[in-house]
Protein: Lactate dehydrogenase
Organism: Demequina capsici
Amino acid sequence: MDVAIIGATGDVGRAVCSDLIEHGELGAGSRLQLVGRAGGSSEAAVHGLRVDLIDAYDEKAPHIDVATSPDDVVADVVVVAAGRTIPTGTGQTIDRDRLAADNRIVFEQYADSLARHGSGHEVVIVVSNPVELAVEVFARRLGRHRVIGMGAWLDTLRFRREIAATLGIRRQRVSGFVAGQHGDRMVPLWSTVRLRGLDADERLEIVERLRGDRTLASFASEIATAKAHVTTQTDMAAAFGMVDAFPPDLQAVIRPYLTHTSGAKTANGTASATVDLIRTVLDGRDIVVAGQVLLDGEIELGGMPWRGVLGVPVAVGPEGWTRVMLDDLAPDESRLLWEVGQAINEAIVAWGGGQ
Ligand SMILES: NC(=O)c1ccc[n+]([C@@H]2O[C@H](COP(=O)([O-])OP(=O)(O)OC[C@H]3O[C@@H](n4cnc5c(N)ncnc54)[C@H](O)[C@@H]3O)[C@@H](O)[C@H]2O)c1
């Protein structure tokens, strides 16, 4: 199997390349394509990155090649990690509209090229932001089932880790999903949480203890209050310490937010979750993950079949995602998912997606 990384020389792109080789996901018979931008700094840097990766991993590296034109992207799995990013550091203004306007051009360029020159079977894993816009752009051109945004999977892994850490157990014992929009507007699906080795009653008791008497109706205001609270703290170690006292769903939003405002990025966690998704696609079996996908009535929200990009649990295999794996939701979950779905659809229209 071959993998192409668009934006390979970026922070996330580099980390994905190293992780993929380090964990042996691509054998000697596979190809890793590093994609840079002609006319940009990455045009030269992709060649340097290729040599550096061979230098580091000669014994186990796959065949590594370079492309600097969207028309030359060829792979079974294409990772989209190119484009502008959200600025790090405190006091940085986040202009999502500008990010969307700039990155939409990049998304359209690659999606159009893949539609024209691709094999017709590539699976696209989107890392770039706004992830929902990118999924919309690629899915409209390549087919819905071949395009998966990784934001919901990253949010899911964070949610599971926070639950596991609070309970003092390993993350592998926790399942359950995060749906919705990547980041602040994630929808933690507490009704899907399972703890291996515990029966239903024990699980319910623990979930109640972790959640307290909160419902998702207050989640957005809790996030706003928590952000305001942690940003009053100038000592970053103390700010991270404050997060330890939050419930797990709030921790899953605020800890990465703080990481970003600290001036560090979330490149390693993002890359690890991306490689996890690539492994799932290469694995050949249908495995349930969460991802942003373009829905066409697979689920009902607000009493009607839902159409638009939304993060949901999906079965993923070598051809992309096949089914949405969402059972009956709790009333607060379907309400919030409906609100978030509406907001995403409106944003995508405002950003000129859906064309
Ligand atoms: N989904 C997530 O959880 C998540 C987490 C972190 C970052 N991100 C997103 O991933 C993207 C990359 O983040 P980063 O931190 O690596 O940014 P970065 O600035 O370090 O890297 C971006 C890379 O894209 C390259 N690039 C720009 N235009 C290109 C084009 N047309 N063709 C090929 N390459 C091009 C740049 O040369 C650069 O190397 C951003 O949009 C960011 O918001 C997503």
